[in-house]
Amino acid sequence: MSEATRIPVHSNESPHASFRPRRHWARGGGAALLVLAIGGMSCSPNRAQPQSGNAKAFAAPPLTIATAAAQKGDIGIYVNALGVVTARNTVSVKSRVDGQLVQVNYREGQSIHAGDALAEIDATPFQAALLQAEGQFARDSALLENARLDLDRYKEAFARNAIPRQLLDTQVAIVHQYEGAVKLDQGLVDNAKVQLGYCRITAPLSGRVGLRLVDAGNIVHASDANPLVVIAELQPIMVIFSVAEDYLPQIQQQLRAGSKMAADAFDRAQVRKLATGTLETLDNQIDTATGTLKLKAFFSNEDEALFPNQFVNVRLLVNTLHGATLLSNAAIQRNAQGAFVYLLKPDQTVATHPITVGTTDGNVSAVEGIEPGVVVAADNFSRLTDGATVQMRPATNETRRVEAEAGTGADAPKTTGRKNHPQ
Predict the structure, then answer these.
(1) Cβ neighbours for 339, distance < 8 A, ≥ 6 positions apart
(2) Which of 56, 198, 255, 303 is 20 to 30 A (C-alpha) from 376?
(3) Distances (CA, A) of 130 to 78, 139, 188
(4) CA distance 157 to 163
(5) CB-CB neighbours of 219 under 10 Å
């Protein structure tokens, strides 16, 4: 082996010194590949910026909404009030004679008719009093008959001058005396019959009896403070309510014209209508403490939906607006500027439009600012914005029913019922 190829064994250089140029090449090549990769990504057609033709692919889909159409019709102006149901007639039945209550002929809460027997009092003492009065009447009647016969004899004798005038006059007075006694006896007989009739207590009117206040076997008196039973007339029945004095001119105008002002009675929650009646009369003075006037409404109450002392909400119709633009309350929105709706445009977008809300109730309102026939959005308001693209939701049977009740659907009649006006 020559010296040129001999490797020193004890050299200070590391055995890996000959591999350093190769490592530097690897680092430089990796950097070059990274630059090429970045350049290729930036030049790739798949990473190009979206073109205008692809913007539609990323646009939000149209919102599906229900719609409501404004309609032309009539709407009533109502006055709301809190009322109390009152029986048309209430009778506290008491005994008119003293005696023992021997029989009660009614059931508690029973509906009765005028003349029905309610209770009976022991009639034995009153039958005896009647018998005594009839006996006295019979005796005095006989005395009167005999006195009249004597009077006829005295007249014949006086005509023959057989007796003095004084005897004839005395006999005439005796006849008159017995006539008075007979009349007195007749009165006693009649009074005894009346007292005997009081032993059978009957209903003075048709209605509903309350709870039994006195049981059979008790001694009752005509002077007792508590009644035997209380009867309330439920058919018909009345509702008394108060309205602000500001409505008095409108009410008087309707009454003078002979109009039967309709009054509806609702439950406490103002959800269920209990009965429909008419205004009967109003009070003769305004309460100065509250500035209200009491009114009384008449209800036939055939189904007995109204009960005495029940609190109800009353809606009194005071006027009717004809030819108003009606819109479902579900379509009316409000913000700081007031009420508005989302109008449906021909290009299937919506635009906000301000309106003025007038007479209203739970389902429909009279509005100004739009014309009858205008279609507006009726739901999905949380996602609607001015100019949003929408599509109409197909109407279901339930939707058609609700719209028909509100009078604002496509199939709804042009004239709706009377509606409510806040007091």
Answers:
(1) 332, 333, 354, 355, 356, 357, 367
(2) 56
(3) 62, 14, 8
(4) 6
(5) 13
CA-wise closest residue to 357 among 344, 336, 340, 382: 340
Report the domain count for the chain. 2
Amino acid letter, residue 162 = A
Q: Which of 209, 10, 258 is nearest to 111 (CA)?
A: 209
Structure pTM? 0.63
Q: How far apart are CA 233 and CA 119, in angstroms?
A: 19
Rounded to whole angstroms, the Cα distance separating 177 from 140 reads: 10
C-alpha 23/C-alpha 60 separation (Å) is: 55
Q: How far is CA 380 from the centre of its chain?
A: 32
Instruction: Decide if 349 contacts 387 (C-beta within 8 A).
Output: yes
CATH number at residue 143: 1.10.287.470
Q: Which of 143, 171, 173 is nearest to 156 (CA)?
A: 171
Residues 304-359 pLDDT 10s: 999 999 999 999 998 888 888 999 998 999 999 899 999 999 898 999 999 999 88
Q: Domain check: are 146 and 246 in the same one? A: no
- CA distances to 197, 243, 292, 421 from 246, rounded to whole Å, are 54, 8, 9, 14
- Reading the block at residue 229, the tokens are 């039973």
Which pLDDT tens digit goes with each residue over 177-207? 999 999 999 999 999 999 999 999 999 999 9
415 within domain boundaries: no
Query: Would you state the structure tokens that stand for residue 267, as one six-digit string?
Result: 């439950």
Q: What is the CATH classification number for the domain harbouring 343? A: 2.40.30.170
CB-CB contact of 411 with 107 (8 Å): no
Residue 60 lies in a domain: no
φ, ψ at 51 (rounded to 5°): -85, 165
What element of type H or E holds 243? strand 237-244
What is the chain's percent helix, strand, coil content, to nearest 5?
30, 30, 35
DSSP type of residue 246: G
Check whether residue 201 and residue 297 sit in a common domain: no
Task: Please report whether residue 38 resides in a domain.
Answer: no
Same domain, 262 and 401: yes
Give the residue numbers spanning the domain of 248: 67-86+234-406
Q: In terms of Cα–Cα distance, which of 273, 277, 275, 295 is closest to 286? A: 295
